[in-house]
Structure formats: structure tokens, C-alpha cells
Write a structure and sequence with these properties.
Elements lengths: L1 E8 L3 H12 L4 E4 L11 E5 L2 E4 L4 E2 L4 H9 L4 E3 L5 E6 L2 E5 L8 H18 L13 H5 L3 H8 L3 H15 L8 H10 L3 H5 L8 E3 L3 H10 L4 E3 L4 E7 L2 E6 L3 E9 L10 E3 L4 H8 L6 E8 L3 H4 L2 E7 L6 E4 L8 E8 H7 L4 H16 L8 E4 L1
Parallel strand pairs: 1-2, 1-13, 2-10, 7-16, 11-14
Antiparallel strand pairs: 3-4, 5-9, 6-9, 7-8, 11-12, 12-13, 15-18, 15-19, 16-17, 17-18
Helix pairs in contact: 3-6, 3-7
Length: 380
């Protein structure tokens, strides 16, 4: 019989970390994963010979102390992001370059943008992270979208365009699809909006050499916990005897269960007894973000020779932001671009050839004709 002290459902970073902590307390653990791999939203993939990239989460930065501690404990290597040189900004197809954090906008737009960032940071400080519904005026904040708030608080079009690019990249969805309360919770959890959008001293400051998923592989290697892949849990039953996790071909029994899958994925699991009605309503209204990562691989990081750092912001086309994703140990240059929100929902329906042509065209606009000659373009 498949019996253990604790059943952990989901073999992403949360599930693997939970299994590790339980083992250290002397508990027997079984780990169930619906996919054919570990990692969840962390996925490292080879897109060219000896060239691996992260198709899921990849960056870590200040305030993420637990991640840095794990990297150190398991002997993984940190690679700082590259941000030396000038950035590119393109608003309404008018391209400019600039150095530092302040984009070349009219002073009125810069002041408007600065006020908006300071105001949303100030609002986020009142959030009760462990219980967001206890935040002052929570119902009111949850009743308006981030887009509504932007319309009322950002007067100038260029300032609004920059804020929208940053917000939709951070939240991986349209500003019309999330409430102001949700945005404030996320902002406070990342310290402030500045930290979430910046590279140096920000959320994009570092990445893990070998890919983020490599850290999980190091963690799983030293666990005694058995990982059951291709084992989607269909039903969880709890009674006086403990918990049963029922999969398609076998059932697992435990004293307790920890479910670490994203809220939207909980709709695929039947619970007995049923979850509280408020929890069920929250799950039914939760959705995954829409984001596509686009990688362009080049013979060399040619943008560095032009004094550029690979970072760009763009309010037209499909790619909204780019970063240098070059591995300093390789000769190749890599640009990563993000397609997010409503544009991602449209982009995903294009043929692979059309996606590649669009990516190439937009990178040429941002970085010049050298961007027209990639070794490979990969989007996922």
C-alpha cells in the first residue's frame, strides 16, 4: 500500500521544498506530480547545442533571501544580469536610447510617472500580506482594476504607456484583468514597484547558472522522497483515517496532505469533504497569467559592441520588453523578449514561422539590422 506520513501534491519548487522540510523533521513523504518532469513553473530547456534557457521563472533579486540561501546551500552558481550600457525605448515606433533608469520622456510625463509609482508604493504599504482581505478598504481596492486606477492617476499618455509596459510584464497579464488589491499585494510582497521592475538591486538582478530548474534537480537528488511523475491527482478524500490522494491508476494514503499547485489548477481536483464556498469561489475566479518568452540566439552579443545592454521597452508590436540573457561562459549572444497579456493570447495562435518573423522584425527595430541574422529563434 502507498502509505506515508505526508502526501505532497505538485513537484514544483514549493512541493520539493515542503518535502525537504518534512524529511528533516523525520516524516515519510510521497511527492505526486501530474507532468512528466519536476519543476512546475521552472523549466530549463536546451534550444541549441549546449545552450540552455529558462522558459519559466529565472531571476532572483533582493528580498528573495530564501532563494539565495538555497542556491548557496546546494552549491549552485549565481550569474549577475548584464545591464552595462544604454537601454532602448520605443514609444509609438519612435526609438531612442538612454543611460540609467530615467527614460527620455517629456518632463511632464516623467513627473506623472514618478508620482504614480510613489503613490502605488504608498498604497501597497498598507496591505496585510498574510490576510489581504483585512487591508483597509480591501473591498473597494478589489472592486477596481489596475487599469481603472491608472486612468485616474496617470494623466500623460507616454507615462501611462511606460507604466503599462512595466505592470503587464510584472503581472504577466493585462492591467484590465487584475484588481488594484491584487496588484498591491504583489507589489508589497516584492518590496515595492521599483524593486519589481529594476535589474540592478531589483527582481531581475541575478539568475542561476545552468537554469533555475537545475537547482530543483540538486534538491531532489538528496531527498529520500519518491517522486511519482505522470500522476495527476483527481480526488482528495479526508476522513478520520487520514487523507487519500486518488490518481488514475493508484491511490496514495497519508496522515496529512499538502497541495502546492497553482490555485487555478485546483479546479481539476475533487475534494471530499468539499472546500469552503469562499475558497471554491476564489479558485473559480483565479487564472494563470499569459506570458510568452521569446529567445533570439546570435553568434555574438552584437548589441554590446554598440554600447547597448540588451534592455528595451516597446509599446507597439508584440514584444513589450527585452533583456540580455547571454551566458558569459559561451560565445553566443541571447536576447530574451516577453509577449504578455492580450498580445500573448493572440501571438500563441500564430504559426511558428509567423512568430519568428514578428520577433525578428521587432528586434531589428530595437537593436538594428544585426538582429535580422539569428542562429535560432525560440518562443514558448
Amino acid at each position: 500500500m502507498n502509505r506515508s506520513d505526508v502526501i505532497v501534491i505538485g513537484a514544483g519548487i514549493s512541493g520539493i521544498y515542503a518535502a525537504r522540510e518534512l524529511e528533516r523533521q523525520g516524516k515519510s513523504v510521497v511527492l505526486l506530480e501530474a507532468r512528466d518532469r519536476i519543476g512546475g513553473r521552472l523549466l530549463t530547456k536546451e534550444i541549441h547545442k549546449d545552450v540552455e534557457v529558462d522558459l519559466g521563472g529565472q531571476w532572483i533579486g533582493p528580498t528573495q533571501d530564501n532563494m539565495y540561501a538555497l542556491v548557496s546551500e546546494y552549491g549552485a552558481e549565481i550569474q549577475p544580469a548584464y545591464f552595462e550600457g544604454k537601454s532602448v525605448i520605443s514609444l509609438n515606433n519612435k526609438r531612442k536610447t538612454y543611460k540609467g533608469l530615467i527614460p527620455p520622456l517629456p518632463i511632464t510625463s516623467l513627473l506623472s510617472l514618478d508620482r504614480a509609482i510613489k503613490k502605488i508604493n504608498r498604497l501597497s504599504r498598507a496591505v496585510v500580506l498574510d490576510a489581504p482581505w483585512k487591508t483597509p478598504n480591501a473591498k473597494k481596492l478589489d472592486g477596481i482594476t489596475l487599469e481603472n486606477w491608472m486612468s485616474k492617476n496617470i494623466r500623460f499618455k507616454k507615462a501611462k504607456a511606460i507604466f503599462k509596459i512595466a505592470a503587464e510584464t510584472v503581472f504577466a497579464t493585462s492591467v484590465a484583468d487584475i484588481s488594484l488589491l491584487h496588484a498591491l499585494v504583489y507589489i508589497k510582497s516584492g518590496n515595492d514597484f521599483d524593486c519589481l521592475i529594476n535589474v540592478e538591486n531589483g527582481a531581475q538582478q541575478d539568475k542561476i547558472a545552468g537554469g533555475a530548474q537545475s537547482l530543483l534537480k540538486l534538491m531532489i537528488e538528496v531527498l529520500n522522497t519518491k517522486v511519482n511523475l505522470n500522476c495527476a491527482v483527481k480526488e482528495i478524500v479526508q476522513n478520520e483515517n487520514g487523507v487519500s490522494a486518488i490518481c488514475a491508476h493508484q491511490t496514495f494514503y497519508g496522515k496529512k496532505a499538502i497541495v502546492t499547485v497553482p490555485p487555478a489548477a485546483l479546479e481539476n481536483i475533487d475534494f471530499s469533504p468539499e472546500l469552503p464556498i469562499n475558497k471554491k469561489q476564489l479558485i473559480s475566479r483565479s487564472f494563470m497569467g499569459s506570458a510568452i518568452k521569446c529567445y533570439a540566439l546570435y553568434e555574438t552579443p552584437f548589441w554590446k559592441e554598440k554600447g547597448l545592454n540588451g534592455m528595451a521597452s516597446n509599446n507597439q508590436g508584440y514584444i513589450s520588453v527585452t533583456f540580455d540573457n547571454t551566458n558569459p561562459k559561451h560565445r553566443y549572444g541571447i536576447i530574451i523578449g516577453f509577449v504578455v497579456g492580450d498580445k500573448a493570447k493572440e501571438f500563441v495562435n500564430f504559426t511558428e514561422k509567423k512568430q519568428q518573423n514578428l520577433i525578428s522584425k521587432e528586434l531589428v527595430h530595437l537593436f538594428g539590422e544585426d538582429a535580422a541574422r539569428p542562429i535560432k529563434i525560440h518562443s514558448e
